[in-house]
Design brief:
This protein has 488 residues and is an all-alpha fold. It is 77% helix and 0% strand. It contains 23 helices and no strands. Helix 18 packs antiparallel against helix 22.
């Protein structure tokens, strides 16, 4: 319980715990496609009114990312107009409706189980809606935690949001594994030979096509549970003190601050907030082009290194390598991912941002080369390719995964942070979509070329960080303002 001199740690913990469920939904929604995409592809390749190509499948598997671009673009406007709490509630509703609609896209307008071009459009619209929730959560959850947390705990608490994202991915990998059970996923050879015959009475009765008719639907609808929980719990947490102060509700802001920090400290923080909410705004290019370029390129490289091609299509990749149960291998990869994310959380303040990014880039390059070799040299054991995929993924998880978000939150001067961050995050989702939607046709053409390309980009990313990105470890936000004035 809070006192006049000391705040309530339990109260702070409960608030942050609710907020990071938004991060978990971020990870859940972006990774649920990994288990569902193959059955989904088989389903739509059964359409008779259009041809479901690899390119269409790549776009369908990545359509949620279009919503992410929209959600991230409007998140700042919504946070300012409706508040952080209400905006997060809206994001939760988007998650829930998307999950339900992706499970039953035929709702009202189409016959269930009959794939058509119209049904494909409806399915993608539901996925875009979920992407809007993801885009909003990607910006609003860290913002909410940062504005609610005490200064001496802010960095650690915001970092846990990234952990929640990876944990959400692990949860959905496990859920997909449980849903699939002993059912056999459709074989890609039969698809290539004419999957348009798969949707018939005999095929539907076969166990091998359960994932075509039912499995992918259950994977999507499973997200309704955490989405509903988040939407309900977010109503119980307070609005952030900064937003309350910005909208003239100082008494409520002080009440929240006092419960978290103690009354005396709460009054001090409120005074600081009041002194900064009227702070002069500067133009985006006040500190020169370089700071914006670096922020944008951090986001671009985080996606261009190809990580989401692994996260979204992991079961397909493991099956191609001849591994036993591809979903089991995906769960194992999720455990590796979450373990290496913790490495970043507990070392970023000791080792610094740049060393982690550079080492991670080189580790990803090595892993990507290993995957390329596994395809080019079939004589290599399947375990070689699987281990290479995990090295690739683990290297991202202790570097570009969490550290990119940390740098984007630190690197911009105070007066341009809002606009500059919005631009950087928008570029992140744009390149996420480009990489994810092009992976299927590229991988179908040449896995070796695809991962060779990602390896080259990883090397370029390492050189970029080494040459241009400043180290922000131990620097205040005011120090960054001085740094960019000198480098202007």
């Amino acid at each position: 319980m809070a006192t006049k001199t000391k705040g309530s740690g339990a109260y702070l913990f409960s608030i942050v715990l609710v907020a990071v469920i938004g991060g978990l939904l971020f990870g859940y929604d972006t990774a649920v496609i990994s288990g569902a995409e193959k059955g989904l592809q088989a389903f739509f390749m059964g359409a008779t009114d259009f041809q479901y190509t690899n390119l269409l499948h790549g776009i369908t598997s990545s359509s949620a990312l279009l919503g992410c671009i929209i959600g991230s673009a409007v998140s700042g406007l919504m946070a300012g107009r409706f508040g952080r709490k209400r905006s997060l509630f809206i994001a939760g509703i988007c998650f829930f409706l998307s999950a339900a609609g992706s499970y039953y896209p035929e709702f009202l307008f189409f016959e269930k189980g009959i794939p058509t071009a119209g049904l494909l459009v409806a399915f993608n619209l539901y996925r875009v809606l979920g992407g809007i929730g993801v885009g909003m959560a990607s910006a609003l959850c860290p913002m909410y935690i940062a504005e609610i947390a005490p200064a001496d705990k802010r960095g650690m608490l915001v970092s846990w949001n990234q952990f929640a994202i990876i944990f959400g991915q692990l949860v959905v990998y496990f859920v997909n594994l449980v849903i699939l059970g002993d059912h056999i996923a459709p074989k890609m050879e039969s698809l290539a030979e004419g999957i348009n015959q798969i949707i018939n009475a005999d095929a539907l009765a076969s166990d091998g096509n359960w994932s075509v008719t039912t499995g992918w639907r259950l994977m999507f609808v499973s997200e309704c549970v955490p989405a509903a929980l988040f939407s309900l719990l977010i109503l119980l947490v307070p609005e952030t003190p900064r937003y309350l102060a910005m909208t003239g509700r100082d008494d409520r802001a002080l009440k929240v601050l006092s419960r978290i920090n103690g009354e005396e400290k709460g009054r001090e923080i409120l005074a600081d907030i009041k002194s900064t909410i009227s702070e002069k705004k500067e133009k985006l290019m006040t500190y020169g082009f370089l700071v914006i370029f670096i922020g944008v390129m951090l986001s671009v490289f985080q996606q261009a290194v190809g990580i989401n091609a692994v996260l979204y299509y992991a079961p397909r990749i493991f099956e191609t390598m001849g591994m036993g149960n591809p979903m089991m291998q995906t769960v194992l990869m999720g455990i590796v991912n979450i373990s290496f994310t913790l490495v970043a959380v507990f070392t970023v303040e000791k080792l610094g941002r740049k060393p982690l990014l550079i080492v991670g880039s080189l580790g990803m390059a090595l892993g990507a080369v290993g995957v390329a070799l596994a395809d080019a040299l079939p004589s290599l054991p399947g375990a070689f390719g699987a281990v290479s995929v995990m090295v690739y993924s683990a290297s991202f998880m202790f570097s570009w995964g969490p550290i990119c978000w940390v740098l984007i939150s630190e690197i911009f001067p105070n007066t341009i942070r809002g606009a500059a961050t919005a631009i950087a995050v928008a570029f992140q989702w744009i390149f996420n979509f480009i990489v994810s939607s092009t992976f299927v046709p590229l991988y179908a053409w040449s896995p070796s070329f695809t991962y060779g390309l990602y390896s080259a980009i990883c090397i370029i990313a390492a050189v970029f960080v080494w040459k241009l990105v400043p180290e922000t470890k131990g620097k205040t936000l005011e120090d960054m303002t001085k740094l960019w004035k000198k480098r202007k």
